[in-house]
Amino acid sequence: MLNAIVIVARKELLDSWRDRRAMLSAALYCLMGPAVVWMVSLTVHNGQLVLSAMMAVFTLVSAFSGGMNVAMDSIAGERERRSLVPLLMHPVTRRHLLAGKWLAVALFAAAGLAINLAGFALIVHRVPPPSLALPLIPLALLAAALELWISTLCRGIKEAHTYLSMLVFLPMGIGMFMVFSPLAAHGWWTFLPVAGQQLQLAATMGGTPPDAAAMFLLGLTTATAAGLALLAAANRLECDDVVYGG
Amino acid sequence: MIEVRNLQKQFTGVIALRNVSFHVPDGAITGLLGANGAGKSTTLRTICGVLTPDAGSVVVDGVSPGDAPLALQSRVGALLDHAGLYARLTPREILTFCGRLHGIPVPRLRERVAEVVDLLDMRSIADRPTGGFSQGERMKTALGRALIHSPRNLLLDEPTSGLDIPAVRALRAFLRRARDGGACILFSSHVLEEVQALCDRIVILAHGEVAAEGTPAEICARAGAASLEDAFVALTSAEVSAC
Prior knowledge:
The complex is a heterodimer.
Chain A: H1 2-17, H2 20-43, H3 48-66, H4 68-80, H5 84-88, H6 94-123, H7 133-153, H8 157-180, H9 195-205, H10 212-237, H11 240-244
Chain B: E1 2-11, E2 14-24, E3 28-34, H1 40-47, E4 55-60, H2 71-75, E5 76-79, H3 91-101, H4 106-119, H5 135-147, E6 153-157, H6 165-180, E7 184-188, H7 192-198, E8 201-206, E9 209-214, H8 216-223, H9 228-242
Parallel strand pairs in B: 3-7, 3-8, 5-6, 6-7
Antiparallel strand pairs in B: 1-2, 1-4, 8-9
């Protein structure tokens, strides 16, 4: 059934790639952080910690904004244009269909992260260590799973857009809280999905050597959270009103 | 061949189907009639495996979902009222995607897509994104999607809705050819003249129950009516008064 997952993912990638306005919007969203940090860096000369924290917040947001349009279109959009029922009529389980869509959304989320980090490298000359991939790839998986779950709860693109836009505030809110809260700088927050990534990003972008073990554990907790969100989306997709409500 | 046995389905307090049983033979077009809310769409969605019944069963070509959960989808091609397409993909890409999900090997799939494109006279639109399609072009693409895996059993929910006269005639001709080739076709429509012209057998649903089943002549005789329209009204009204 891996074949079915890949077929669905390929179709989602092709379909979403052709939505050039959505692609451009997502890319600009991901590059907004590097541009803002660059402008701030021109005026702030002794605020490296603040700049690092700002970079971390923008990077977290890019993981959520990179796949947002694809997630919105791939379940809520299918319901709105009445193509979900025909899709469910194929001899493929709903879990496999969802897994294919998740893979596609996660790839766009990861691309959003990559564009954001490349922007920071090119514009403000901050290159993250490769070990940051350990918590950031699971973050893309988590963002994709949460977005798909919300998309399964919505009947159309407009409704999904409302709730997914709110979801993007999650990393922003957590990130800003971490910037200003001294309590968050240590302890179990390091292993909490999103908050942990914020701490690791801010630390490594600020020049602190990466802690590979902590990053691995953070990656593990984030991947577990992604699995739970995906399970919630899969259960939701089994409900009758997903078929009937469209 | 489709056997529907004692199908029951309830949605949050509303009974959609009450012990619905009927038989759809091979080599015949069977019309499924009913007023809005009679249970036609729920019945069709249950037959094609999208909805799970609360009780009862559907057997297609001797196979029930209990034996093989995804077997129904392989044996049934359906064009329900949900005929949505992917606006940024072309019909050829949509048919290829659906064919691959049905497990058709790639070299055979290319041939099959070309066959369906020819069958439905879609050559001029096959490589255009479906976003700007007319209703007829959309319906052809959706029908092609239902036919890509060469199903022996076809479920069609108001397939002529929104089509122009040439497209309706082409669809009717296609259905007759498929029937003559031995296909089992279940066809739902509100247009009684069309049902009378096309269907060999009729199942009438009213309030989630089978109100009558048989050939158009048998249905008219049972209701003591001169036309199918009068018979439909008499039989569904009888159901209402019985309720």
